[in-house]
């Protein structure tokens, strides 16, 4: 049942054989009912952390969060989180429960969970425990808070952005009362940690329904983050965006590389993501990118200047933005280039990358710095200048990338 992996079934059996109830719970139950492959399986159990430890005494365990009742067991090298049934205490800071109590009752553990579709458990035989109507909400494609949405969001405001995240990833609507609470309480999100907000936001942005959710809840999203985000028309472009996080961040936080950078910095995104997203935004607004529509020499110069990954992302972002009339007028020129034209430009770049003999950077030249020194050029910046000159000669087709011909040219 449920396509439960063998190691999960075995862990449930071990706990049960030791006399403790044990269930797979949360996201994995939701995803397997939906026919999606869960990325991890979580287990909840009546066993206390020490009792769980004793059951898995022969296995390697990692005490991930013993005081919150979580013990990670390595089963065939797969880390499996096993958490004792838990009741969360007051959230006086709207962030962390002041304390947690362990429980022997599964229903109490399910009641602390955020949404009905996340509050189901399934045992080894595939028997479903679903006290809040999660299964029906899955069928109706609804995100609904467990209990009163206002209370649950006041306890932990991260749940507000999580509601939007699950709607975007699953393509579900948010049930009306829950949606009202999302809209009226969104600003509370700002009191939660920016790192945790950002994790939810990245999952939301990668969701297939990000465009629909963000256009509908744009105002709530701005309140959640405490910043302006892209206009609705631009957010709608996410519909056609490839599943690439920096590119999608470029749409979401833009227009303008500066806004992309500041938005991501504010949310404490990692530096590589900030760099890549800012670069994509910058390139997408750079008139020079039109070179990819021209010829291979122009494409190779762009490859030389930006590298394959950043260049292709910049072109793709440009292509997505070209679907919007207002974006194109603002940044490039009125000369309309279609998304298809940009996609063809991108393919042409990729064909260059596939060529074994392609030469668009210094290291692909048939000569290197050592060769230049041996012709008598003194060590120093001149060597680099000569290599760059040769590279330009090769790219523009004046000289083939042939060692003899290049050496002769240096002399
Ligand atoms: P994903 O597929 O992205 O991992 P998930 O449903 O597993 O989705 P997690 O953030 O990994 O989501 O959380 C695991 C489970 O823990 C959720 O399904 C939910 O039952 C519960 N949970 C997580 N965060 C909260 C929260 N802030 N409030 C209440 N319950 C939560
Ligand atoms: Mg999970």
Kindly summarize this structure in a few lines:
The protein is of the alpha+beta class and 411 residues long.
Please provide a written account of the structure:
By secondary structure, the chain is of the alpha+beta class. It has four domains: 1-140, Beta Polymerase, domain 2, CATH 3.30.460.10; 145-226, Hydrophobic Seed Protein; 244-358, no CATH class; 359-411, Serum Albumin, Chain A, Domain 1. 52% of the residues lie in helices and 10% in strands. The protein contains 22 helices and eleven strands. The chain has helices at residues 6-17, 27-33, 49-55, 106-111, 134-140, 149-155, 158-170, 176-185, 194-206, 210-216, 218-225, 232-236, 245-253, 257-266, 271-284, 296-306, 308-321, 325-331, 339-354, 369-374, 381-395, 403-410, and strands at residues 22-25, 42-45, 61-65, 70-75, 78-84, 86-88, 100-102, 121-122, 128-129, 142-143, 173-174. The strands form three sheets. It has a seven-stranded mixed beta sheet with strand order 3-4-5-2-1-8-9. A hairpin with a 5-residue loop joins strand 8 (121-122) and strand 9 (128-129). Helix 7 (158-170) crosses helix 8 (176-185) and helix 13 packs across helix 14. The longest helix is centred in the last third of the chain and has 16 residues, at 339-354. The protein is elongated and about 85 Å long. The mean pLDDT is 94. Bound molecules: adenosine-5'-triphosphate and magnesium ion (MG). Magnesium ion is lined by residues 27, 40. Keywords: Magnesium, Metal-binding, Nucleotide-binding, Nucleotidyltransferase, RNA-binding, Transferase, tRNA processing. Residues 171-215 form the tRNA nucleotidyltransferase/poly(A) polymerase RNA and SrmB- binding domain. Its cofactor is Mg(2+). InterPro entries: Bact_CCA-adding_enz_type3_sf, CCA-adding_enz_C, NT_sf, PolA_pol_head_dom, PolyA_RNA-bd. Belongs to the tRNA nucleotidyltransferase/poly(A) polymerase family.
